Amino acid sequence: MNILLLLIPAALILGGLGLAGFIWALNSSQFEDPEGAAERILIDDHEEAPPEDIYKS
Amino acid sequence: MSQIPSTASSDTLQRVQLSVPDMHCAGCMGKVEKCLTALNDVTSARVNLSTRRVSIIWVDNGLSVDNLIDRLADKGYAAEAIDDMDDIDAKQHEIGREILRCLAVSGFAAANIMLLSVSVWSGAGDATRDLFHWISALVALPTILYAGQPFFRSTWIALSHRRMNMDVPISLSVVLAGGMSLYETMNSREHVYFDAAVTLLFFLLLGRYLDHLMRARVRNAAMQLVKLAPKTALMEDNQGLRSRVPVSALEIGMKVVVLPGAVVPVDGRIVAGSSELDNSIISGESLPELVSELDQVYSGSVNLTGSLLIEVTAVGKDSFLASVIHLMEVAEQHKSRYVRIADRLATIYAPFVHIVALMTFLGWLWVTQGDWHQALVVAISVLIITCPCALGLAVPVVQVVANGVLFDHGVLVKDGAALEKLAQIDAIVLDKTGTVTTGQLEAVNVDEIDKDALAIAAGLTCNSTHPLSRALTAAVTARNISPLPCAEFREHPGQGLEGICQGRTVRVGNFEWCGIGGLNTPVMPTPENVELWVRIENCAPVRLNFKDQLRVDAKSTIQNWTDEKLSVTLLSGDREAAVKAVAQASSIENFVAMASPAQKVDFVNELTLSGRRVLMVGDGINDAPALAAAHVSMAPAGASDISRSAADIIFLGDHLAPADYARRIARRASWLIQQNFALALLYNLVAIPIAIAGFASPLVAAIAMSTSSIIVTLNALRLRIGGSKGQQT
Which end of chain A, N or C, is surrounded by fewer C-beta atoms within 10 Å? Predict the structure, then answer.
């Protein structure tokens, strides 16, 4: 049963990490715009064009 | 542009939020952001697609909010500035985040404690059990303190106002469950209820968060209807110079120019010019009114044909709009406070449960001859097992589902109590123009008229914004006739249009304008039959008739209501003949014409006093006080801003049926709420004797509470199935 002393804290810590991660994401406004986040990946916005010589070499 | 709500975050940086309702995809987002950041002074532009808004930060270097809006308009996106100091919005947003945080914490705790509880239930040894109880306590107690806050706060507010609500028994059972469990843990006893307390919080917070999400969706949709741009007026000073100023800066005696197509910004008297005004939003009159010098005009009218110079005669609290708002406030005050179903039940339920718990305590004390510990444990377990988990969900879950169904059908329920009240109505009062009718004139006899004449007439009318012109153009183009080009087009306010088409002079307008006085006996325009003449050189004059048409389903919807023995009344500020005609066409027996805003309120109040629960449906500024006075109120999406904010429910689209659909859903929802209460009560009838007998172990409590919550939620979801059925039939 001694393994419980390891497993229970491990379960709590892992769960706690998940919870902390969620609250961090919430506080850093990551749930403000779920629709936009999903669509944003489709925008090709390479502000700086890749250097031209990469194709030459 | 000082009137635009841009807040200076530092000396040089400006920020603003624009509402851009037409953004739908990644492409739109990219275009909007790129076209804004392409401007030199803009440091950042970030789109929020979920709220259809873009936040812009720029260096204050002469760039104005109007420039940004114009820039977006060039790209084809209509945008409007949002007052980003909007308190309600920010507050609601913060509340949503708080509930979500509490939900996450209680979810984490519930999952972990359940794991531990399962091993205890499956028969862990004494030492292990105590260890698990201690760990549960360590997780549960901070969770109860943190995630219970929304309930504790609401309980505190209710109790300090000497009221009772559902959160009182919830808070009590959570706190007692936590406290007793801690005590039992310290004395290493068998029964602790940490799992029950935390799972209860989790379920209830889940319900609350769904409710919050639904409301945010409705609010966002309602916001997009409102014209958010601050109102401005075109002021003319003594030198004749014109400048755009905020309406709030106008003073009595100033002169304001109102261009054709614009809304009159302020109450005033016409100094120069003549025109026709569309007063339908103010008085419910369907016909444009001819005005000229010295006539009084009110803010909210739409100027149709000519340019007007008006002198401001009333501002602030003396204005017509302010008097309407005052009437609204009075009506609101005189309305008796509505107590929501859940709170009404709480006032019966909470004392009942507490008395049962007390009796149990006394009973056990007597049976066990003074074993107060045993008696207390049983009494508290009664409180825990009767804890209103199902009751706490019975109402909100149904309302969330009902609001979701209605939202999908274009009905926005702004107020949580509105659905409950809508289910109770037995009288309906309808406004005429814009509610029973579409509020727009439509040509009725187009098909009897020669197509060439129509093409020529439409060539003239397509240049004009007058409602009759627009109606004729729409009717002609709808019949696939393309308007012929015309030259030398001129519009004469109050008379008609003139132009040259195919070398012939053409006039469209009233009978005098078309010079028909001698040919025909003039027919006075009546509200139910507006006429427009077309005279083409060398041809016989043609008469077109226009009508403010009923909404297509107005008659059948009203028929449904009368079939169900609801009293329906048409209440309008328009002239008697016009109101009578619409009442007959839509088969409404009772009608009242020429009602002022105050008389409308009185009418609604009289009905209320005679014991009726009134649903008021209206769109005009003159309806707003009556909307506020009614038991529950609805406005179409095209209504005036003030009516939309006064109404509890807004329906979109050109039909009246959503009003009836909303009532049906509300009725079904109230039936489901009753069923849910019955289920919760049934659960209690079974659970209470078990608890009183002392058999309410933590396992029993956990199973009983979860099942009852799930049953109640599933029952509420039936509305979604039944809801779509109701639409098909």
Answer: C
